[in-house]
């Protein structure tokens, strides 16, 4: 027998369901999310918290006509399931399967895709402006969480529409506080009153009367009435003050898991004119006890046992640890050594490996919220006081703060130390989360030093160098995953701008950084078996480059190859080519990097294959280049021989 969820073929059918059926649908949707994420991993707690909001929105709107923008998308699994993707939802995160974030090329119901936070209100406002320019009348909705509301872009959009006054509904999904029973009762009463048709008719009629009255302008009647309306709501509902002052009508708080209340409130306000905010209080992980108890732990999950909530452990080397933990451990040593060391992150305490440091150094471990630009500029201010700031942010998220890095840090030559976690391919989160552009966007910045460790030992050495580096900004980019080599002594000597020669060779030179070092050594073995003497150089530094060793091998070998897990444009390989060109060295070269296209979700290993970065693929490309070079050389020799004949 089909479940109610399985019987729904189109989201419009939800409009025909009664309250009992909607409640049942919400529960089935919640169980489906738990079932799939326990097998595939994904964003569990945040999506469990938006089930009733999703059902209520689909009951009140037709998103084949109306428009909705979900902030980030990790809270939108219920929306995906209820917009004709339930049958394929168990392909979540697989290559070619359902994506972990919204994507315009996945469904016509995904009106805007984003993997970074705080964009929803801005994008929705753009849709509202476009709607009005085209003289259409559909509704536009944005759903944003309290975490994403800490981002400056959200406030810029709130401020803009406070002036434009476009019809736009924002659902403020607040799971950061609980509803106090007493305050909740007053708030519930006020929300019912403020959203009632009687109150809104009275409000509009009194303001319209004030506008038309001949004595209104002289007495300031309309302004006075408007202030009375706003003051009454602000008195009883303090959270409304911010939104009301920015020009938005505020309705809240409402229990985001109480379907009757949500349905009633949305039905009352959906056709009101102007900017509208509904403040819904929700619980992350709602309906799954383990996620309710620890929403942070169950935010982004790997496969787990749904019965007891225990994560299924992957088999790994007992001696290995994640690069994030290597960073956290070494940073803890530096913070113990020197009280001037401070670390800032943007809502990524756990992900960047510093959450265990906060209890030990509460005043020096700072989470600024989803505000990467602020994290960078605040660290610049810290640097001016003589402190040693480290900024720990995922590579993909630091992209949002390029201007701050250039203008506030680099121009002033301030010693801010950027720690770029999750550099390279990251797997199932897909193209919005890959860290494939940092070498390019950082290398272009004057005064910047960039390092790439190939293992934990090098990372610790690089952090020691970073700690002592006071002549400008510095960045260390490192991948998601584990490393087994942790002894700093194995990577000595370690000097600024100096690479490491791992293997000598006369025919071919492989210059690599980061995880590509291991690949380069594998490729070198294959080339040696083919009879090519192959050198392998661990670049370590992308800026400044070790020009001496680049020029040495550029003059010595027949083919110089660069390898990096970064976009092919503007990264490590580009720097090597620039060095050769600037010094007039002519040698056959081959750049190996991520091609100029977005790589979809898959395992990191498969993504590297898709990008052509496996050892066998690189080996074959080198042989092709050598073959082309040999053919060209042979043709030149035959041509020269004919001329002499």
Can I get a quick summary?
The protein is an alpha/beta fold. The chain is 44% helix and 16% strand. α20 (456-468) links the parallel β13 (449-451) and β14.
Tally the beta strands: 21
Largest pleated sheet: 7 strands, mixed
Taken as a percent bin, the fraction of beta residues is 15-25%
Low-confidence stretches: 177-184
Query: Helix- and strand-based class?
Result: alpha/beta
**Order of strands in the sheet with the most strands?**
10-9-11-12-14-13-19
Quaternary class: single chain
Q: Regarding CATH, which class of the largest domain?
A: Alpha Beta
Terminal CA distance reads 88 Å
Helix content: 40-55%
The CATH superfamily title of the largest domain: Thiamin diphosphate (ThDP)-binding fold, Pyr/PP domains
């Amino acid at each position: 027998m089909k479940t109610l969820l399985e019987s729904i073929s189109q989201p419009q059918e939800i409009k025909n369901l009664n309250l009992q059926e909607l409640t049942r649908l919400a529960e089935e949707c919640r169980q489906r999310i738990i079932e799939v994420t326990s097998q595939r991993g994904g964003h569990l707690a945040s999506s469990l918290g938006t089930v009733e909001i999703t059902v209520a929105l689909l009951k009140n709107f037709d998103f084949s006509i109306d428009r909705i923008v979900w902030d980030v998308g990790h809270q939108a699994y219920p929306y995906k399931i209820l917009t004709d993707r339930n049958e394929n939802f168990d392909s979540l995160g697989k290559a070619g399967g359902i994506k972990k974030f919204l994507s315009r090329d996945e469904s016509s119901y995904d009106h805007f895709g984003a993997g970074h936070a705080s964009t929803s209100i801005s994008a929705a406002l753009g849709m509202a402006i476009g709607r009005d320019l085209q003289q259409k009348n559909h509704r536009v909705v944005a759903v944003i969480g309290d975490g994403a509301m800490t981002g400056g872009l959200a406030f810029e959009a709130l401020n803009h529409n406070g002036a434009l006054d476009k019809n736009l509904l924002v659902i403020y999904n607040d799971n950061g506080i609980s509803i106090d029973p007493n305050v909740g009762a007053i708030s519930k009463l006020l929300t019912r009153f403020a959203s009632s048709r009687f109150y809104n008719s009275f409000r509009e009629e009194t303001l319209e009367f004030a506008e038309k009255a001949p004595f209104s302008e002289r007495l300031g009647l309309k302004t006075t009435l408007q202030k009375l309306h706003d003051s009454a709501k602000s008195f009883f509902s303090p959270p409304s003050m911010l939104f009301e002052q920015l020009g938005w009508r505020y309705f809240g708080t409402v229990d985001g898991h109480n379907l009757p209340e949500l349905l009633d409130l949305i039905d009352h306000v959906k056709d009101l004119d102007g900017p509208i905010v509904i403040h819904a209080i929700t619980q992350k992980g709602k309906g799954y006890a383990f996620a309710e108890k620890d929403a942070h732990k169950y935010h982004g999950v790997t496969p787990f046992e749904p019965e007891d909530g225990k994560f299924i452990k992957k088999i790994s080397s007992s001696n290995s640890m994640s690069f994030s933990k290597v960073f956290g451990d070494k940073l803890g040593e530096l913070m113990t050594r020197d009280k001037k060391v401070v670390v800032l992150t943007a809502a990524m305490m756990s992900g960047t490996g510093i959450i265990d440091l906060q209890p030990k150094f509460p005043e020096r471990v700072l989470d600024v919220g989803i505000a990467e630009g602020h994290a960078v500029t605040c660290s610049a201010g810290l640097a001016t006081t003589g402190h040693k700031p480290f900024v720990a942010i995922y590579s993909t998220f630091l992209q949002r703060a390029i201007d701050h890095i250039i203008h506030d840090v680099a121009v002033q030559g301030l010693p801010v130390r950027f720690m770029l976690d999750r550099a390279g391919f990251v797997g199932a989160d897909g193209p919005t989360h890959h860290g494939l552009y940092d070498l390019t966007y950082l290398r272009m910045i004057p005064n910047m030093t960039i390092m790439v460790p190939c293992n934990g030992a090098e990372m610790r050495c690089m952090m020691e160098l970073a700690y002592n580096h006071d002549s400008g900004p510095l960045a260390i980019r490192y991948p998601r995953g584990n490393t087994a080599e942790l002894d700093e002594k194995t990577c000595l000597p370690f000097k600024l701008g100096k690479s490491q020669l791992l293997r000598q060779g006369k025919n071919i030179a492989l210059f690599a950084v980061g995880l590509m070092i291991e690949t380069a050594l594998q490729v070198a073995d294959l080339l040696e078996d083919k009879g090519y003497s192959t050198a392998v150089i661990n670049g370590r530094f992308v800026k400044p480059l070790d020009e001496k060793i680049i020029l040495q091998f550029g003059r010595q070998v027949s083919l110089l190859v660069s390898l990096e897990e970064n976009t092919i444009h503007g990264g490590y390989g580009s720097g090597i080519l620039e060095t050769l060109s600037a010094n007039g060295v002519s040698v056959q070269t081959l750049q190996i990097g991520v091609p100029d296209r977005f790589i979809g979700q898959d395992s990191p290993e498969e993504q590297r294959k898709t990008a052509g970065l496996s050892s066998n693929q690189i080996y074959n490309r080198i042989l092709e280049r050598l073959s082309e070079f040999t053919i060209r050389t042979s043709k030149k020799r035959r041509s020269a021989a004919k001329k002499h004949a």
